[in-house]
Specification:
9 strands, Ribosomal Protein L22, Chain A, globular, alpha+beta, binds coenzyme A, four-stranded mixed beta sheet, single chain, 6 helices
């Protein structure tokens, strides 16, 4: 079975007039509503990265690219951004000093990057990990890294389906953080029958994963962070 190309693009948050100029009206409203400069920068960088990569891939002019964001669960417009009329799927994520976009043709994709933080890992593990996952995590010397790897793998899966955190992470059982990323079991309404999972290389202090709803092996190409 031929591998499916999965292009990963990394960027650092920035906020310039040429980036803001590409936002459409709804995006500009959202941009204005962010209170913190760093949230504005992560948002505008993500949309700029998406327009740049998709313009390269499709030949469309970046300022002609309009995303839909329909929610699959309600009539709202807060869902996964998509480019209508093309058999390309992309996913965006941002955290701390990282913005990432993953692009795939012919399959749904999800990505998540997480800056490792001093969250209450024991309490969060109760909420989002299965019992075997918790056992594996608590046996690890670096629980913080392990927890963020679990989280990014599961969030990438739920972003590939478009459910996001509206679906429970405890319905997903993934391989231990120090083993190659793999879905071991997944039940519930968000569960996908065919899925590939991979850890990405966001650099020290971050965890990141990509999920693609396909049975084909993934060929991942990561552009390094400038
Ligand atoms: C999608 C979600 C998991 C992202 O959470 P996060 O960790 O804060 O943010 P990340 O940086 O990893 O990802 C954010 C990006 O995901 C994308 N995104 C938004 N909703 C998405 C969804 N449902 N599925 C996939 N991707 C989504 C967007 O590109 C967004 O960034 P942008 O708006 O700046 O372009 C979270 O927003 C969520 O769970 N949304 C759905 C919530 C819900 O309850 N929906 C049902 C309502 S009826």
């Amino acid at each position: 079975m031929p591998a499916l190309e999965c292009a990963v693009h990394w960027a650092r948050p920035a906020d310039g007039p040429e980036m803001r100029a590409l936002l459409d009206e709804r995006e500009r409203d959202r941009y204005e509503k962010f209170l913190r400069a760093e949230d504005k920068a992560r948002f505008v960088t993500g949309r700029f990265l998406a327009r740049s990569v998709l313009a390269d891939r499709t030949g469309l002019a970046p300022d002609r690219i309009r995303f839909t964001t329909d929610c699959p669960l309600c009539a709202g417009t807060h869902g996964k951004p998509r480019l209508p009329g093309h058999d390309l799927d992309f996913s965006l994520s941002h955290s701390g000093d990282r913005v990432v976009l993953v692009l795939v043709e012919g399959a749904e994709v999800g990505v998540d990057v997480e800056r490792e933080s001093d969250r209450d890992i024991v309490r969060l593990a109760e909420m989002v990990l299965t019992e075997p996952e918790r056992e594996a995590l608590f046996a690890m010397p670096d629980r913080r890294r392990g927890f963020h790897t679990y989280w990014s793998r599961k969030e990438a899966l739920l972003k590939a389906t478009g459910h996001g955190l509206a679906a429970p992470m405890t319905a997903i059982h993934v391989s231990p953080p120090d083993a190659p990323a793999e879905v071991l079991a997944w039940h519930g309404e968000a569960a996908a029958a065919e899925v590939r999972l991979a850890d990405l290389t966001p650099g020290p202090g971050y965890a990141a994963s990509a999920a693609v709803l396909t049975s084909r092996p993934l060929k991942i190409t990561e552009t390094p962070l400038a």
